[in-house]
Amino acid sequence: MVDLSLDPISRIEGHLGIHVKVENGEYTDSKVEVSMFRGFENLLKGKELHLAPNITAKICGVCGATHTLVSTEALEMASGLYPSERAIAFRNVAYSLADIMYNNVTVTYLFQSIDYSTEIVGKQTPKEYERAKNTPCKFKDVHGFSKISDILDNLYFGKSIYREAFKLQTNLRDLATAIWLRYPQPLSMKAGSITVRDPSIIDKVKKFMKEDKTIDKLFYIMADLRDFIDYYNNIDEDFVTYGLLEGGEYNADYEEMDSWAEERLFPPALIRKGEVIETNLSKILLGVRVYIGGTPYEKWDREYDKDELGNEIDEKHPWNKETKIKSLINTNFVPTVKQFHGEEFMPTTGDIARLYSMRLRRGKISALNYEWEPRGNNVIERTFARIFTVAFLKEFLENVEVPQGSLDPISGKKAYVMAVGAHDAPRGANAHWLIRDENKIKRYQIITPSDRNFSPLGGPVERSIIHQKVTEETITGLDALRIVRSFDPCSACAVHLEYKDSKLMIPV
């Protein structure tokens, strides 16, 4: 038996480790370990409501607007304000460019694809490299590579595909920054509005998307790899997504949430064993449960039985949760997040969840003349879903239109005491729950996509590793690392302190 501790893991956001066991050529055990204290919830308590988006913007520097957006939507619900259709359109363009497209190109080609480069494959899995040399590329006419091995030869740091992806992600970030005014941590987004200094940026975005050929090339490179990499196990087709990109019906009203969330470009859905079991966003959010077994967190009391509409709230729901910590000396600070819908389960979230939702709820989905069909929930499918989303949003932005009108906030029907902002990050379902006391924050809780995917005690990452066959000749943990990176982890989200080597460290 081989016992491996893979900590810290590189080419991810944050500090994450996994402990795995291998026996008879198969992974038999896996445990996620994140030696961080999640403290932003406590930083926010007692603060004035309007400060929440600015503080939560500091959570992550990769998906640099997602916490700002979700916190702003929670603030809009708590303040009784919402943005005009014109403001929504500008938000959607910037969010597509940076938090989805920029992030996904970076993660797919600057973080993940190195694991499939000749420098890694040729050394660790030489038989696979020999197979690659004998496998022709189906989409050679688009990307220019004749054999799969030609692609692998150009994936490593500084090679041609890496350089093209690096340039593309920089261009996407720059376009988004023209709207956000700063990225990460946008300056332009306010409750009910957005500040736009250059309205012509939309024409520049559309021009860039129509003229760009790099996205097409990177997309079809990954399409060829999708067909070639066929040796990773599937886990259950259980998914959750809160949806992505608001429609014009958005008004931040909790009572009307199911209606306006349905108009998102990617619709919300809870999927169990490949079948949609819930589409109402409010019900999906009420089904969130947080367990703290095996962590240094203290149990909290059930303060609220119902929300403001009379729906029952479970004791383990974020609106009841308090972040209380007993000790900073611990190897895991990530709670276990489950979803309740008749029974509790732990679904995957991310780009693949959004594509499943779109396909099951709205029919066939295609991008750049490639029709996406589900092939399961495995390493390459999660990775391909990431770059497929980039291609899909490229076509969306080529044709985007921004309505005329005001950018001023609009007054809604009600300012809620219990509010929630729930919108997908690139990594999946991201939500901020708050309870206010007048204009102050009484309670603030954050459940990120990585909380779900990297939940201990049987979450999607752990399930994906267990029973996976080892593909490398000398065991180094490569397969486990590929699985981890396929979930695009962001363990830094909601973190501000780290415990390491018997002392407290404050990352800068």
Automatic annotation (TrEMBL):
Residues reported in the UniProt entry to bind Ni(2+): C60, C63, C490
InterPro entries named among the record's database cross-references: Ni-dep_hyd_lsu (IPR001501), NiFe-Hase_large (IPR029014), NiFe/NiFeSe_hydrgnase_LSU (IPR050867)
Keywords, in A-Z order: Iron, Magnesium, Metal-binding, Nickel
Cofactor(s) of this protein: Ni(2+); Fe cation
Positions with a binding annotation for Mg(2+): E41, I446, H496
Coiled-coil spans in chain: none
GO molecular function: nickel cation binding
Chain sites annotated for binding Fe cation: C63, C493
Classification via PANTHER family: HYDROGENASE-2 LARGE CHAIN, UPTAKE HYDROGENASE LARGE SUBUNIT
Name listed for the protein in its UniProt record: Ni,Fe-hydrogenase I large subunit
Organism: Acidianus brierleyi
